Amino acid sequence: MVPIDTEKDTLIRKLSEQYAQNIIDLGEYERMIEYLTKIETKHEIATLNKIIQEKDTKDKHPLDLGKGPEGETHITVLSWSSSSVKSVNGSIGKYVSVFGANRIIIDHLPLGKTILQVSSVCGLTEIMVAKNIKIINKAIPLCSGIFTSGEGNTACDDVPELYITGSVLFGNITIIRT
Predict the structure, then answer these.
(1) Most exposed: 8, 39, 138, 171, by fewest CB within 10 Å?
(2) What domain range is 94 assigned to?
């Protein structure tokens, strides 16, 4: 079994390589290093390693990082982020929160199905959705909760549909109708 300090050193080298290759910016590099220094369990290391590997597998031009046909990937580690989003090819993107919070504001979606992928580990994801959008929640809570406030106008079949997928571990997703 590899000691945690050795695994931390490996992750620090990977993060340094990603920063040197412009895969991540300085702010994200510093947040990830700060989080890494506070890690105490193998589970936390595995979670951070997965996030780092996802960034490594992206074969993108440095000026187009995080973007693709499925939308953007937003990672929040020990911080808070707020985004007004738009659908790109039927997807809003992927939002990951590790000991942090994401606020996702959805005012308008095209007709049809739009997917929002959410992952939260000891974090909060707040999704603010217009009342004219039908919500289909497929996210899986593990030792956490998914909360919805307000009612939407879903009586009509000709409305945009938001499919929320992903998982939440020791955190929560809150859906607020605006």
Answers:
(1) 138
(2) 66-178
d(C-alpha 124, C-alpha 145), whole Å: 10
SS3 34: helix
pLDDT digits 0-9 by tens, 107-139: 888 888 888 888 888 888 888 888 888 888 888
Could you give the 3-state DSSP secondary structure of residue 104? strand
Question: What is the average pLDDT across 99-107?
Answer: 86
Calpha distance 16→24 (Å, rounded) = 9
Q: What pLDDT, in 10s, does the model give residues 19-68?
A: 777 777 788 888 888 888 888 888 888 888 887 777 765 544 333 333 43
Interhelix angle 42-57/26-38, nearest 10 degrees: 160
The answer to whether the CB of 175 falls within 8 A of the CB of 149 is yes
Are 4 and 75 within one domain? no
- Claim to verify: residue 3 and residue 42 sit in the same structural domain: yes
User: CB neighbours of 4 closer than 8 A, spacing ≥ 6?
Assistant: 39, 40, 41, 42, 45
Cα 31 to Cα 23: distance, rounded to the nearest angstrom: 14
